[in-house]
Amino acid sequence: MKSALLAFAITLALAGCATTTSPTGRKQMVGGISQAQLDQLGEQAFAQAKAQTPQSGNAQETGYVRCVVDSITRQLPAGYQGRWDVALFQKDEPNAFALPGGNVGVYTGIFKVARNQDQLAAVLAHEIGHVISRHHEERITRQLESQTIVGLAGAVIGSRYGANAGNAVSQYGAAGAQALFLLPNSRAQETEADVVGQQLMARAGYDPRQAVNLWQNMIAASQSRPPEFLSTHPDPQSRLNELSQRAGSLMPVFEQAQASGLRPRCG
């Protein structure tokens, strides 16, 4: 009876979720949060980043980043176009991010590895690719799903075998969900953002081969990385191989974009 109740409760908890298809054809679980709520969370997170991290006073570098972002976002689907908010943060870490609601944050340390406009476009197109692939919504939905299942299972086990057993299920179940369910999903998202981002940069008139050079620079700058099975990023060498293979097939897209007048001159 308790198992049946657990199954019924899980079904009710996940009733608002839906399965859709990502830009690369991967099945996604979404619907745990509305687009309006997602955009609001993105705006709040961006405002918090601005409040906590100093922004660069270098107008030339900020304009450079803005130029690359604008050239990429002009190639987005209609629902994602428009002026995106851009902030260049004074931070030595080579990193960048994009958030729902149309927000892009870049750390000044990115210029150590993104050494030309095409490599910077590879970074930013990858991050924007996460947004248009609905990865933030997918992550939130997956986490809500995982928390619901683990919490309900812990409650049922606790009612039958006692509070200690229930707490153990909740504790170890959450750890298992993180290692076996949530993190592998993140690696799938990173790979997908590579695909979407490289396509996007080529359509915007940036050389897709420069994505390979960018990640070579990233790897060279990295001191260490966690084991792949606990990482949210694909294996570096596998990533380079896939980027290189895909760059060749995207050269006609890049050349057509350039021929049509898409020749970014950002920096």
Automatic annotation (TrEMBL):
What PROSITE patterns has UniProt attached to this entry?
PROKAR_LIPOPROTEIN
GO biological process, alphabetically ordered: proteolysis involved in protein catabolic process
The record's remark on the cofactor is: Binds 1 zinc ion per subunit.
Molecular function via GO: metal ion binding; metalloendopeptidase activity
Gene3D superfamilies named among the record's database cross-references:
Metalloproteases ('zincins'), catalytic domain
Q: Where does the record locate the signal sequence feature?
A: 1-18
Q: Does the keyword Magnesium apply?
A: no
Task: Give the highest taxon in the source lineage.
Answer: Bacteria
Keyword Protease annotated: yes
Domain Peptidase M48, by residue range, is 60-246
Question: What are the UniProt keywords, alphabetically?
Answer: Hydrolase, Metal-binding, Metalloprotease, Protease, Signal, Zinc
Cellular component, GO annotation: membrane
Report the family membership.
Belongs to the peptidase M48 family.
Q: Which cofactor does it need?
A: Zn(2+)
This one is known as: M48 family metallopeptidase
